[in-house]
Specification:
By secondary structure, the chain is α/β, with parallel strands linked by helices. Helix content is 43%, strand content 15%.
């Protein structure tokens, strides 16, 4: 599916950010799977009315300890984070890497940086990811966040909207799925999202222990660092 195609109107974005743009605020942009600056509704939402934007990736120990991550996947992650950091630097920002459980590290950073808005892209359907997001949002509110913005961008449409189309019942044919998908897309047409030319810089004088450089495979999983593969 074309990567540059996303819903033109994100209701959760417009509802939450509409209130947040009255005054410039500090924003934490939590990167997860969508490690890019182009066609990123989350980045657009983070920059809207922001005094400072803190682009954060949290290196979750579960990612390695889950047992489903091999050397190629780790290498791809590290290369993607380095590419994201370069893209952010080209726009006056940089990637900040936290190490630890997101439900602990993100609220801690929010307190240190005086963050009022948390922004992230909806990308979790796994039980672990859903529980993690609930815990992070609860911790963010307790830490002082007044606006939490969850945007669509990982999938072509809002998966919750698809579920509402089928009233929570399993879809038994592709033609029915197509009908439901078309209905959702009519309400939220698919269109690319512009890439911000400049990103409000983060005040990194108090970086809350965040690393100012993306991790290497050696740092993430020393046991896998020396592993070789014929591909790529």
């Amino acid at each position: 599916v074309g990567e540059g195609l996303r819903p033109a109107a994100d209701r959760r974005h417009s509802m939450a950010v509409g209130k947040a743009t009255v005054a410039a605020v500090n924003v934490l942009l939590w990167y997860r799977k969508g490690l890019r600056v182009h066609d990123s509704p989350a980045l657009v939402a983070a920059c809207d009315g922001a005094a400072h934007v803190y682009p954060v990736f949290c290196l979750d120990p579960w990612f390695v300890s889950s047992g489903s991550v091999g050397p190629l996947r780790l290498r791809f992650l590290c290369e993607a984070l380095n590419d994201l950091d370069r893209s952010l630097k080209a726009r006056g920002s940089r990637l900040l890497v936290l190490r630890g459980k997101p439900e602990e590290e993100i609220p801690r950073a929010i307190r240190k940086w005086g963050v009022e808005r948390l922004v992230f892209e909806s990308d979790g359907v796994e039980p672990y990811a859903l529980a993690r997001d609930v815990a992070v949002c609860e911790g963010a509110r307790k830490a002082g966040v007044t606006h939490i913005v969850e945007t669509q961008g990982h999938t072509l449409c809002d998966l919750d909207e698809l579920l509402r189309e089928c009233k929570g019942q399993p879809v038994t044919s592709y033609s029915v799925f197509q009908k439901h998908f078309a209905s959702v897309v009519r309400r939220a047409p698919i269109a690319p999202v512009a890439t911000p030319e400049r990103i409000p810089s983060s005040a990194t004088d108090s970086n809350c222990g965040a690393s100012l450089s993306p991790p290497t495979v050696e740092e993430v999983a020393p046991d896998l660092a020396g592993t070789t593969s014929l591909f790529p």
